Amino acid sequence: MAWLESHQTLADHPKTRKLARILGISKPTAIGHLHCLWWWALDYADDGDLSRHDAMDIAIGAEWDDDPETLVKGLTQAGFLDETEDGLQIHDWEDYAGKLINRRRANAKRMQDARAAQTSTPKIGGDDTSGTRATHVHGTQRACVERPDQTGPDQPDKTDKGAAAPNYSAEFEEFWSHFPRGKGNKKKTWDQWKRLRPDADLRAVIVERVEAWKKTRQWRDGFVTHAERWLRDRGWEDDLPEGDAQLRVVNGGKPAGDVIDIPDDLFGQERIDYARRVLAERERRHA
């Protein structure tokens, strides 16, 4: 799991107050958007260089649902983003994520050195592969085992090809077929599925919400929560990004056929209550 430093002085820093004032939001909300942006950068811009990303990418990373250009302008004016000749750069990124970046680089170099040592070390005893290998090679391998890189993003499924494949259920396979390809570790997702033990109604809701999220700009742009995390964190209960999708009403866990347009200024339970009132009014008119 990756991490970055967050100092308590951020709460009352003039830059934080300025950002909140420019964006017209509360200070706690501004702090939340900043941290979302920094966490996103750990995976998609770990050097702090945002020149590869446009304003929409930055807004998605910061969980900002309003105008992306307004956010970028506010971050720049407040001093959280720097304008350089090459593009935008996160201000003082080395101070926030320097330890993580250095650790990743050290891990990468250690692995590279280990591979080089294995390649360059001759076999001992001719073709006898059962002999004892050079001591320094064993030491290198042991270091790699004892100090794995735990700061990087989720790695692809590296399940032993020789091991027996898990006996996935048909219900899980259906869910897996709906989730975006390549976004998750199937075995880890299966473990989460078994812990969840969803019944038929919940399975229907989960699949429907996956399909709804697949229509959002965030998921279409590739910023998809990995399947195992999505199940663990009950992602089907999360609100879709405002203005990006419609809410399908759920009654008693069963998806209804009606799709309701929800005003952008409603959140959480207010959105559900609004949708149910609209649905009830439709039923009354058709009674």
Structure commentary:
This protein folds into 3 domains: 1-153, no CATH class; 158-238, no CATH class; 246-287. It is built from 12 helices and 4 strands, in the order ααααββαααααααββα. It has 287 residues and is mainly alpha-helical. A two-stranded antiparallel ribbon has the order 1-2. A two-stranded antiparallel sheet has the order 3-4. Mean pLDDT is 75; it is low at 128-155 and 245-257.
Unreliable runs: 128-155, 245-257
Calculate the mean pLDDT score and round it: 75
Distance between the termini: 55 Å
Which radius of gyration do the C-alpha atoms yield? 24 Å
- How many domains make up the 3D coordinates? 3
Counting DSSP E segments of at least 2 residues, the number of strands comes to: 4
Short description:
This protein is mainly alpha-helical and 287 residues long.
How is the secondary structure organized here?
Layout: H1 14-23, H2 27-44, H3 55-61, H4 68-78, E1 81-84, E2 87-90, H5 93-120, H6 135-146, H7 170-178, H8 186-196, H9 200-214, H10 217-220, H11 227-232, E3 247-251, E4 254-260, H12 269-286
Antiparallel strand pairs: 1-2, 3-4
Which terms would index this structure?
two-stranded antiparallel ribbon; 3 domains; mainly alpha; two-stranded antiparallel sheet
